[in-house]
């Protein structure tokens, strides 16, 4: 997993998915919030799922929602978390649907971009 540094302003559509992910995290009171954007521009927003029988990260849940809704590819993904690096399983889920070039934006709980993977 490689992190790239951002130079210049963030694309408005990428800022939007970070804002949506941040809102999901706050609204649901969960550890992480995530949002993904599919090839048609539709967004899917999710939070961490923690049940006795099912545990999914926010990004895994957002990817699953996209797949269940018929998305064929992803343009971008964002996760709002206190972690500095996304879990490998999260990046793998995004890349399974989006391909190797799909950016995974990681933002702090304050909504500040901390890295792109």
Mind explaining what this structure looks like?
The structure is a single chain. This protein is of the alpha+beta class and 117 residues long. The chain has one domain: Cytidine Deaminase, domain 2. The chain is built from 3 helices and 7 strands. The strands form 2 sheets. Strands 2-1-5-6-7 form a 5-stranded mixed beta sheet. Strand 3 and strand 4 form a beta hairpin. Helix 2 runs parallel beside helix 3. The longest helix is centred in the first third of the chain and has 17 residues. It is globular.
Overall mean pLDDT score? 94
Number of separate strands: 7
**Could you give the distance between the termini?**
7 Å
Give the neighbour order of strands across the main sheet: 2-1-5-6-7
- Output the helix-strand order: HEEEEHEHEE
Q: What's a quick, concise take on this entry?
A:
This protein has helices at 12-28, 58-68, 88-98; strands at residues 33-38, 43-47, 49-50, 55-56, 74-80, 104-107, 113-116. The protein has 117 residues and is α+β, with helices and mostly antiparallel strands. It has a single domain (12-116), classed as Cytidine Deaminase, domain 2 (3-Layer(aba) Sandwich), CATH 3.40.140.10.
Topology (elements, then pairings):
Layout (H helix, E strand, L loop, with lengths): L11 H17 L4 E6 L4 E5 L1 E2 L4 E2 L1 H11 L5 E7 L7 H11 L5 E4 L5 E4 L1
Parallel strand pairs: 5-6
Antiparallel strand pairs: 1-2, 1-5, 3-4, 6-7
Helix pairs in contact: 2-3
Key descriptive features of the protein:
117 residues; alpha+beta; Cytidine Deaminase, domain 2; two-stranded antiparallel ribbon; 3 helices; 7 strands; 33% helix
């Amino acid at each position: 997993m490689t992190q790239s540094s951002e130079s210049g302003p963030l694309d408005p559509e990428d800022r939007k998915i970070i804002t949506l992910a941040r809102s999901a995290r706050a609204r649901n009171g969960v550890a992480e919030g995530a949002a993904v954007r599919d090839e048609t521009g539709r967004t899917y927003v999710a939070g961490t799922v923690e049940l006795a029988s099912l545990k999914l990260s926010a990004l895994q849940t957002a990817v699953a929602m996209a797949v269940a809704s018929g998305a064929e590819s992803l343009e971008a993904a964002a996760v709002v978390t206190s972690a500095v690096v996304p879990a490998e399983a999260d990046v793998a889920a995004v890349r399974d649907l989006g391909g190797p070039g799909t950016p995974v934006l990681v933002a702090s709980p304050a909504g500040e971009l901390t890295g792109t993977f």
